[in-house]
């Protein structure tokens, strides 16, 4: 292990959010007193750092559990014999201890595969929904299975399966569209529908990709809407009253 006295720390929860000059603290002055160092978490946010006297930027992983830090360091030493660039492996430069934590110095990388895929999928699917809205069409069945790679090399996605697509002006109130996992709340509540049901379904798809699971239970519509209410709160009174009026037979309103 080497000394910590030559590192300038720039603290961020994710080092790809760093902007030059923000909240920098220089280790050699002994002034690094970030409160998270006192937390019980074994791994703290990664710091984006520079080495004093050098413009090159590194990522430093801070591990408060000394034993875990040493074990990761030993594990990384096992792969040091391999060329990290040729074999697509993370490059470790050095390791040091500071204020009873272990700091592992890694190469700086751009973003995770998960973030990259979500970002690209978002842009392309937003464009797809914008185009559909421009001609007044609602897909009505956006789900994981209906977004596919057109070209893996260029990461181009396509929205498929328009078997349930309709013109937005023809969406009847009370119609049962979308599978339950991706069903918009206005569909469940029997409210007037428009293109926004596709946006909700796309949001559920992206949440699935990000979290690795469905955001809401889906065995019944009751379970689904109950979970939504727990997170977002009850719909506004005028929304519920509108649904009630739509559900009543016309004769009862006379």
Automatic annotation (TrEMBL):
Signal peptide residues on this chain, from the entry's feature table: none
Which keywords label this protein? ATP-binding, Kinase, Nucleotide-binding, Serine/threonine-protein kinase, Transferase
Please list the residue ranges annotated as the Protein kinase domain.
12-254
Is Transferase there in the keyword field?
yes
Which residue spans adopt a coiled-coil conformation according to this UniProt entry? none
InterPro entries named among the record's database cross-references: Kinase-like_dom_sf, Prot_kinase_dom, Ser/Thr_kinase_AS, Ser_Thr_dual-spec_kinase
GO MF term set? ATP binding; protein serine/threonine kinase activity
**Which SUPFAM superfamilies does the UniProt entry name for this protein?**
Protein kinase-like (PK-like) (SSF56112)
Task: State if Glycoprotein is listed as a keyword.
Answer: no
Q: Membrane-crossing residues?
A: none
A Pfam family recorded for this sequence: Pkinase
Q: What protein is this chain from?
A: Protein kinase domain-containing protein
